[in-house]
Write a sequence for this structure.
């Protein structure tokens, strides 16, 4: 692999790690709210979270570009704060990826929280555990399979994205050029050998991750 | 501490209404009894603070836990309670010991005078849990899980123990396995217990105080010995109506295998194994097992024939029957006889009769 390929792999891993951590932080409260709320806004929020599942990545990337760009409302805000604009930066990639992978993290956690139900939390409350206490000592440990699935899917999905990255990040070496874009470049340049190295690597990575997920969650169920 | 429990709750949601005003004793087991859907579980959840839609007032041992008129509401984790759910609701990610310690650690903060302060070893011994301590809840039987749940609630140092049909989800065999533990708790616990059930048998075995529920309202509330013999209540117990008597073992006839139990108006003799003289036992006499005679039967095979006075005659559970309330030297009893027998014998209040007891059930 060329130094450019290695840089792309490194950047991809860095992006996926940062995005996954942010998604767990942002997605957990959203998942909790969706699993427990009786609000009539639940349907609306659930639909917004699920949008990236059905929208073409280019649509998401296009609107993000407008919002985050120099004339977009968020772009104006980031400029006023002295942060510059986000498109075509690593930070911009992170923001776009968080939105794009949100459903892959929120939905498994939401499902796990719903499966835990309110009974164990009520039991914890009657034993003297306050709201935060019972969240961290009962809800999260019991929802662990959901968190595991969410982490793996969030990471893998971020590694595998292309359209949003191209729209928001462009193709800047060592800044926004991730593996999927690098493969695209190799193919454009008819350098199939180089493309094979990266593309084949991605296939192996995806397969290993999904297999590991299956084995991990499967073993948990048997242990029950 | 034996200051009483005062609970007043109102809940209304579509198709259901609860409106109760209860005074419960500060010691012993108070059974909330009634058919399913009558509001007894909602009432119990309201006492725990788990049913936020329940508005009202709750005072336990002189402390106000909830008074919606003043905007006071103590959340469940600040109420010094133990709660046993119908399903054990153990934490599957913790071992049995982890489950027990969960409440113990947190309950320590609310441990004050009067609180049950059992150590883990002591409570584990009471419920025979030592061999299970390192097991996972998922590997336990239903009865074992419920015993762990009871121990977990006790270790949270409650000043009030709330139990919601703890036996209802168990099959008959498991029920028989748990009941002795509950009876042991009944004898050893110093805190009040509120026990929701729809089983007349559990009421007879465990309750000291009985609250009859129907359609979200309290029909009657009082000591077990006062509520059971009442004739004015629609017999929720139907053909299982009867009285529960606290008696003392006074003699054992080894030749015939009969145990003699004494109580005011007694004694009675019951086929049973040896029990030390002086032991306290609960016995149940059902109305359908009591018949009446005007003069003392002399050639009857029935062993237990007690003199009594008719107090009142009320409606029976079928048009052909009447329910007769008796007084046997201070012990109230019920007899279910046919309307025809009442007319033939001329049974009326004040009359002296002989109560022939065909069967006595020993409950503990």
């Amino acid at each position: 692999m060329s130094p450019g390929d290695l840089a792309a792999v490194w950047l991809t891993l860095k992006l996926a790690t940062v995005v996954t951590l942010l998604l767990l932080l942002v997605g957990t409260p959203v998942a909790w709210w969706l699993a427990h709320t009786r609000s009539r806004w639940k349907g609306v929020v659930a639909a917004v979270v699920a949008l990236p599942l059905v929208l073409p990545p280019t649509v998401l990337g296009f609107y993000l570009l407008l919002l985050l760009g120099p004339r977009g409302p968020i772009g104006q805000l980031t400029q006023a704060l002295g942060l510059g604009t986000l498109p075509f930066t690593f930070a911009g990639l992170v923001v776009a990826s968080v939105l794009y992978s949100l459903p892959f993290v929120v939905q498994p956690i939401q499902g796990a929280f719903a499966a835990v139900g309110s009974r164990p939390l009520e039991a914890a409350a009657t034993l003297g555990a306050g709201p935060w206490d019972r969240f961290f000592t009962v809800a999260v440990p019991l929802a662990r399979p959901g968190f595991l699935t969410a982490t793996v899917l969030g990471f893998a999905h971020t590694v595998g994205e292309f359209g949003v990255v191209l729209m928001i990040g462009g193709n800047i070496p060592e800044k926004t050029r991730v593996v999927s874009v690098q493969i695209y470049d190799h193919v454009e340049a008819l350098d199939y050998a180089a493309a094979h190295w990266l593309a084949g690597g991605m296939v192996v990575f995806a397969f290993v991750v999904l297999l590991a997920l299956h084995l991990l969650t499967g073993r948990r169920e048997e242990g029950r | 501490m034996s200051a009483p429990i005062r609970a007043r709750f109102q809940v209304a949601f579509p198709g259901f209404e609860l409106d109760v005003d209860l005074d419960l004793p500060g010691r012993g087991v108070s059974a909330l009894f009634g058919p399913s859907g009558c509001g007894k579980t909602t009432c119990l959840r309201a006492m725990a603070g788990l049913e936020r839609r329940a508005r009202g007032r709750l005072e336990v041992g002189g402390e106000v836990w909830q008074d919606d008129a003043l905007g006071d509401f103590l959340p469940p984790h600040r109420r010094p309670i133990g709660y046993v759910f119908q399903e054990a609701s153990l934490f599957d990610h913790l071992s049995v010991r982890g489950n027990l310690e969960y409440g113990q650690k947190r309950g320590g903060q609310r441990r004050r005078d009067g609180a049950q302060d059992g150590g883990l070893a002591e409570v584990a011994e009471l419920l025979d849990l030592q061999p299970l301590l390192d097991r996972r809840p998922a590997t336990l039987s239903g009865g074992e899980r419920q015993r762990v749940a009871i121990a977990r609630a006790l270790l949270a140092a409650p000043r009030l123990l709330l139990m919601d049909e703890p036996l209802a989800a168990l099959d008959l065999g498991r029920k028989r396995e748990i009941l002795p533990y509950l009876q042991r708790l009944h004898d050893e616990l110093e805190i009040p217990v509120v026990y929701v059930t729809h089983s007349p048998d559990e009421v007879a075995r465990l309750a000291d105080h009985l609250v009859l529920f129907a359609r979200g309202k309290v029909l009657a509330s009082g000591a077990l010995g006062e509520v059971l013999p009442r004739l004015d209540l629609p017999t929720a117990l139907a053909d299982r109506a009867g009285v529960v008597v606290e008696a003392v073992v006074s003699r054992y006839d080894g030749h015939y295998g009969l145990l003699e139990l004494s109580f005011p108006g007694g004694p009675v003799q019951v086929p049973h194994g040896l029990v030390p003289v002086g032991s306290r036992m609960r016995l149940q006499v059902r109305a359908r097992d009591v018949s009446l005679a005007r003069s003392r039967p002399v050639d009857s095979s029935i062993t237990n024939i007690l003199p009594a006075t008719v107090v009142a005659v009320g409606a029976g559970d079928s048009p052909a029957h009447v329910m007769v309330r008796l007084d046997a030297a201070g012990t109230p009893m019920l007899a279910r006889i046919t309307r025809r027998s009442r007319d033939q014998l001329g049974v009326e209040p004040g009359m002296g009769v002989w109560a022939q007891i065909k069967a006595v059930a020993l409950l503990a």
Residues 325 and 334 of chain B are 5 Å apart (CA to CA).
